[in-house]
Every structure is written in structure tokens, then in C-alpha cells.
UniProtKB/TrEMBL annotation:
Residues 1-97 form the HTH arsR-type domain. This is ArsR family transcriptional regulator. It comes from Oceanibaculum indicum P24. The lineage of its organism: Bacteria, Pseudomonadati, Pseudomonadota, Alphaproteobacteria, Rhodospirillales. InterPro entries: ArsR-like_HTH, HTH_ArsR_DNA-bd_dom, Metal_resp_trans_reg, WH-like_DNA-bd_sf, WH_DNA-bd_sf. SUPFAM superfamilies: Winged helix' DNA-binding domain. Gene3D superfamilies: Winged helix-like DNA-binding domain superfamily/Winged helix DNA-binding domain. SMART domains: HTH_ARSR. Keywords: DNA-binding, Transcription, Transcription regulation. One of its GO terms (molecular function) is DNA binding. The keyword ATP-binding does not apply. CDD domains: HTH_ARSR.
Length: 107
């Protein structure tokens, strides 16, 4: 559980920066096809060096993947990791009070 906690904390920390959150949300919106670095830069208006720095942090956290297609670098949100993080946050919802996600236990 500690490893899960550490991983979740690192991923949430990466998303805690407004620029990284904007990048990640842009990639989530793009879906499976992803976006090239140039397309992300165009959509968000970030300087290349700033975008590179933030993408690197998202890569280290495991939230984003990159794939080279010729001379183009395609970035994608890792939806499996995203769902895992959301699940990690929701898994313990209301367990201490004996209800499930805000609904009273029928038993």
C-alpha cells in the first residue's frame, strides 16, 4: 500500500502544477491518437523549453507516453494510469462509515 501511496502522491504532485494539468487535460481530450509536441505547443501557447520540461515531468510520473513517428514525437495520456489514479482515490470512499460512495448501505 505504501508503494501505491507513493506512486499516487507523485502523480498528483505532477498534476498539481497548472501548466502540467493543462497539458494532461489537452492530451486526455485528444484521446488515443494523441498530439504531437508541436500541436500541444500550438494549442497551449507554451514556449518549447517550458513544454519540454513539463512533458518530462508527466513522463516521469507515468501519466504520459511518447512515441516517435518519423521526425514527430506523439504524446498521449496514459488512460490506464489515469484510471488507476482515479480508482485509487475512489476505492476507499466512505468505507469507514459503512456506506458506498455517498449512498446509505441497504443492509
Amino acid at each position: 500500500m505504501t508503494d501505491d501511496l507513493e506512486t499516487a502522491a507523485a502523480r498528483l504532485e505532477a498534476l498539481g502544477n497548472p501548466s502540467r494539468l493543462r497539458i494532461f487535460r489537452t492530451l486526455v481530450r485528444a484521446g488515443d491518437p494523441g498530439l504531437s509536441v508541436g500541436q500541444i505547443q500550438e494549442k497551449l501557447g507554451l514556449p518549447a523549453s517550458t513544454l519540454s520540461h513539463h512533458l518530462h515531468r508527466l513522463l516521469i510520473a507515468g501519466l504520459v507516453t511518447q512515441e516517435r513517428a518519423g521526425t514527430t514525437l506523439i504524446c498521449r495520456a496514459d488512460f490506464t494510469v489515469m484510471q488507476g489514479l482515479i480508482g485509487y482515490l475512489a476505492d476507499e470512499c466512505c468505507k469507514d462509515v459503512g456506506i458506498t460512495c455517498g449512498k446509505e448501505d441497504a443492509a
